């Protein structure tokens, strides 16, 4: 599943095409949504919110979620059928194996940008406040809560928890506030590091625990499926403190 930084990369690639203000001149794809609704409408903006990519028109937007296996192509096509293809005068956008949905009205009313871990409007104080309202939750679940950390995915979860020394099964109410603040700071910083490493095609080289067998201090790592989300988790039982 693409995490927030990957969606930012997609948005930046499309922004380079200078398609804002251009009209959709043709549509195709096997999507079941009413795709012709976008035909001959001009794009107002391309936005990203967490794991959502948004194509904004007047009074409505198309939300694209890539789920686990979604992909895209710009000015080229895969051999497999596209879920949706949008054609402009000088460009074509193709989306595959993704979820499509219309969002009605002003996109800024529908989305809380302060919860997007990579947005300029990101509000760490609001994130901390939201975390405290779920005091009995496990930190491995809460980091994947898109209403608190929009765009943060499983890789970032694993890496950030190791970097701040928190065991993934720690209960929120038991983690010191100073540690939670450090976690929030590191989550945002790592998201931008993720973005830069992915652009440079060196992301995996920087993983400390994700998919590894040993942590940087040579302790054996544990691989488990923890919390309500049951997402794959790599952690070090020596370096990461269990707060409970």
UniProtKB/TrEMBL annotation:
CDD domains: BaFpgNei_N_2 (cd08974). It catalyses: Hydrolysis of DNA containing ring-opened 7-methylguanine residues, releasing 2,6-diamino-4-hydroxy-5-(N-methyl)formamidopyrimidine. Residues 2-103 form the Formamidopyrimidine-DNA glycosylase catalytic domain. Pfam families: Fapy_DNA_glyco, H2TH. One of its GO terms (molecular function) is zinc ion binding. Keywords: DNA damage, DNA repair, DNA-binding, Glycosidase, Hydrolase, Lyase, Multifunctional enzyme. InterPro entries: FPG_cat, FPG_N, H2TH_FPG, Ribosomal_uS13-like_H2TH. GO terms for biological process: base-excision repair. Belongs to the FPG family. PANTHER family: FORMAMIDOPYRIMIDINE-DNA GLYCOSYLASE. This is DNA glycosylase/AP lyase, H2TH DNA-binding. It comes from Pedobacter heparinus (strain ATCC 13125 / DSM 2366 / CIP 104194 / JCM 7457 / NBRC 12017 / NCIMB 9290 / NRRL B-14731 / HIM 762-3).
């Amino acid at each position: 599943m693409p995490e927030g930084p990957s969606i930012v990369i997609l948005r930046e690639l499309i922004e380079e095409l200078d398609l804002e203000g251009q009209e959709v001149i043709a549509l195709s794809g096997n999507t079941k949504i009413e795709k012709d609704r976008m035909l001959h409408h001009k794009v107002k903006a391309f936005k990203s919110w967490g794991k959502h990519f948004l194509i904004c028109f007047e009074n409505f937007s198309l939300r694209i979620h890539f789920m686990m296996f979604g992909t895209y192509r710009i000015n080229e096509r895969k051999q497999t059928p596209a879920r949706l293809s949008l054609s402009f005068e000088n460009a074509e956008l193709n989306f595959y194996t993704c979820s499509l949905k219309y969002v009605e009205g002003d996109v800024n009313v529908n989305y809380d940008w302060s919860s997007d871990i990579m947005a300029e409007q990101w509000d760490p104080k609001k994130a901390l406040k939201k975390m405290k309202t779920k005091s009995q939750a496990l930190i491995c679940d809460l980091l994947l809560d898109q209403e608190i950390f929009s765009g943060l995915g499983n890789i970032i979860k694993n890496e950030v928890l190791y970097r701040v020394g928190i065991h993934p099964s720690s209960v929120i109410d038991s983690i010191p506030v100073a540690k939670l603040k450090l976690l929030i700071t590191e989550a945002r910083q790592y998201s931008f590091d993720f973005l830069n490493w992915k652009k440079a095609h060196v992301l995996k080289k920087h993983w400390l625990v994700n998919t590894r067998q040993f942590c940087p201090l040579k302790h054996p790592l544990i691989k488990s499926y923890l919390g309500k989300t049951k997402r794959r988790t790599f952690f070090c039982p020596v370096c990461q403190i269990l707060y409970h």
